Each structure stands twice: as structure tokens, then as C-alpha cells.
Amino acid sequence: MKQVHSFPTLAGPLAAASAYATGYRESKTNLHPTATLAQLRNSFGGDLPAKGQPGEQVIADLIKAAEPGLVGNTQPGFHAWVMGSSHPVGVAADWLTSVWGQNAALYQGSPAAATAEETACDWLLDILDLPREASVGITTGATMAGFIGLAAARDELLRRAGYDFAETGLQYAPPVTVFVAEDTHASNLAALRYLGFGTNNIVAVACDDQGRMITDDIARHVARVSGPRIIVATAGHINSGAFDDFHALADLAERHGAWLHVDAAFGLWARASVSTRSLTNGIDRADSWSTDGHKWLQIPFDAGFAIVRDSQAHRRAMNITAGYLPDDPDDGRNATHFNTELSRRARGFTVWATLKALGREGIADMIRNHCDCASLLAHKLRRLPGIRIHNDVMLNQLILSFDRGRGDADANRMTQAMEAALNADGQHFFRTATWQERCVLRVSIISVDTGPEHIQTLAQKIEALWHDIRR
């Protein structure tokens, strides 16, 4: 039989990619894309070749087509969103993960991947000082981690109410009420929708000016409802960086038999540093937590962690079984017990490698540095008239607006003008957002390379630009 296609050897394409990759970050001086959508479509488009092309040429073509459309989120001047900068050791481990090509669903499918993941999960619980009996699912990010944690919550609460969700399904289940902050992250609402919850099942709780749930308000709402209840708290508000009162929410959950889930996409890592650990007091009393690895931990995209105190509830919600899927009691970890995926990338290798490269002290130092940088920027900007800092700077986030005293509409225009001015030279990447009915400039300090010297430069740049813009 004629062989249709012979795969190229790894050496050529990998050598080409490696030669380019080692110098990419040093050469990425403009953090903004330079190509238009039409140009990118033209570069990537065209008819698929009838015959395969040499691997080195394909990689060269990919670089040429992609580079003008890349964003510099691995650079210290990137502040638009909370995106990690992909630690170099994690990147190297990610390359190996692709070279090895393992499907990390089952222990027997890849004992090495399963064991690396098992060890990394133990390290995570230790670093974050969460209950050691908890189970961890490594998944794509905090959205799916939240989905997993909330699935465990839904199924376990229904089980306690005498309802077998696995047998009867959601259609005839007792109603479950979910309490979220009125300012909750959109990913929580998405996860709830995927799990079959509609707006009538969700109670929005009033928040203070930092986005924290007002505990008296949620207490009133919870007391009015009977039946299964889920409370979704926040550790590290997406704009302000604020933390809910976890002790108060845990007390409330215990009184009413509710499940407390914490959306901690990046705020959970405050536990890793003594300088910020107190922000998370009481968070260990929750029933489940969702967090990202590709944000503050700097693991290459994508990585997230679903952590559930009750490992059996976690497994009941997620376990995938079939006659062809081995589940020997002498095997190591089967990721199918804790995740939605049956075919899955061996993310445990990059998690293990990044944790090992940073170490406990490196993670703590990185968290402290970013929070110190945020405080330094706030200190520099507070003395400048017309620049307003809207959040209590306690983490790595600042929310700014620029106001000449000519009304809200003018302040919104000034904030948008500052965004454009900061982005103009390509050295920084900022985006505005709408928060509390005003236009604000988000400042997220997240790159592993960002330090006080970058913040000093940024503060001077903002001062000079504001002097010109406000006139």
C-alpha cells in the first residue's frame, strides 16, 4: 500500500522554532499588534496546499504570519489584564510535553504524567495551605475550575437533600439557589449557566465600593431561602483586587448547610506570601476553590486548578468510567476522577516544572514584589491632581481615572485619552474598562519581570502625559 504522507523528523522544525524562541522576548519591543485584521487574514489565508510543505518552511511561514499579530503580554510593560508571562522553565517543559505527546487522562496512559500531576497537586495544597485531604483537578483555567467546583457543589447538595442527580438528572431536581456578588466575574455566571442554572436560580448580593459582598445583605438573602444553597465568594476582585469576608461567609454557610465556593482566579496566591496572607483569612474554611495557574503562577497557557475539600464529592461529579478505561486499584492518579476531559494535555509537567523553578520562596517573593509595585505606583500617583485611584490598593491591581473637574463625561474622555497616550509608543499595553458606571484605566502588575524600576518609569510617563492631556 502506498504511504500517503511521511512525517518530517523533529530536528528541523524544532531547531527552527528554538532558534526563534530564544530571542523572541528580547526582540518584542512593541507590545501591540502591527497588522490589521485584513492583513492577518491574508497572511494566514489562501488555499490549503495539495501537498505537505517542509517543516522548517512551515515554521518560518507561521512566524512571519503570526508575529505582526502578537500581543506582548510576556513583557513587563503589559498591564491591561491579569495575564501571566509564561515562565521560561514552564515554556521549556511545555515544549517537552508536546514532544512526548502524552494523553494524561489515565495513569496507564502515561504513568509519568500522572505522577508529575499528583506531586504538583500535593505541592499546590501545601503552598496554598488548603486542607491536605482536598482533591485537585488540573484543567484549562479558572472558568473550567469554577465549573468543576460548582458541579461538585450542585451534586453534593442534591445528594444531601436525598436526590440522586446521577440517576435522575437535573430536570426534576429540587431547586438550588446560588448567591453571587452583583459584581461577580462573568466566568462564574458562565459556569453556572453551563451547569443548568438560570437567572431565576441566582441571587445577586449587594457589594461595597470595592466589589466585596455586604455580609448583612447576603445573610438576609440566605435566610429567606430554603433548600440547597451555594455561596460564591471572591478572592481578588478582577478590578479592585478586594477579598470577601471569608470567616463571615463560612459561618453563614455552616449555619444554613450551604456550600461555599471561592472564585480565586489570582487572589488565592496571596496565601503564598506572608505579606498578603492575612487578606485570605478564613478562606481555608470553604468547600471548593477555583484558581488559575497561567496568571500569577506564570505557568504557560493554559492551566487552572479546581480544588474540592470533599474528594468523594469531587469524584462523583467528574468521574468518567467505561469498560475500556482501566482503573486498577494499584495504579496511580487517574485524572478522569477530577476533570471533565478524557483526552487531555499533560499539564502536570508544566505545573511541576514551574513550581520547581520558582520554589516556595520564589513564589512568595514574586507575590510580594508585584504588590509592592502596585503600592509604589499608587504612592507616586496620589500626589498628582486629577488622578483618582478608585480601589484600596492591597494586591497587584490599580483602578484609575483622570478628571479635570469638568464632569463625568469629560473624565471618561480624559481616561480614554490617557489609555491612547500610554499605548502610543508601544512600550506599554493598557486597556480601559467600565466599572461602577465610569470609564477606568486598569493597571494589573503581573509579569514575572516587572520590578520597581519599571514602575518608576511608568509613574514618570503618566505624570508627563497627564500634564499634556489635561490642558
From TrEMBL:
<dbReference type="InterPro" id="IPR015421">
    <property type="entry name" value="PyrdxlP-dep_Trfase_major"/>
</dbReference>
<dbReference type="Pfam" id="PF00282">
    <property type="entry name" value="Pyridoxal_deC"/>
</dbReference>
<dbReference type="GO" id="GO:0033983">
    <property type="term" value="F:diaminobutyrate decarboxylase activity"/>
</dbReference>
<keyword id="KW-0210">Decarboxylase</keyword>
<dbReference type="InterPro" id="IPR015422">
    <property type="entry name" value="PyrdxlP-dep_Trfase_small"/>
</dbReference>
<dbReference type="GO" id="GO:0030170">
    <property type="term" value="F:pyridoxal phosphate binding"/>
</dbReference>
<feature type="modified residue" description="N6-(pyridoxal phosphate)lysine">
    <location>
        <position position="295"/>
    </location>
</feature>
<keyword id="KW-0663">Pyridoxal phosphate</keyword>
<dbReference type="InterPro" id="IPR002129">
    <property type="entry name" value="PyrdxlP-dep_de-COase"/>
</dbReference>
<comment type="similarity">
    <text>Belongs to the group II decarboxylase family.</text>
</comment>
<dbReference type="GO" id="GO:0019752">
    <property type="term" value="P:carboxylic acid metabolic process"/>
</dbReference>
<keyword id="KW-0456">Lyase</keyword>
<dbReference type="InterPro" id="IPR010977">
    <property type="entry name" value="Aromatic_deC"/>
</dbReference>
<protein>
    <submittedName>
        <fullName>L-2,4-diaminobutyrate decarboxylase</fullName>
        <ecNumber>4.1.1.86</ecNumber>
    </submittedName>
</protein>
<dbReference type="GO" id="GO:0006520">
    <property type="term" value="P:amino acid metabolic process"/>
</dbReference>
<dbReference type="InterPro" id="IPR015424">
    <property type="entry name" value="PyrdxlP-dep_Trfase"/>
</dbReference>
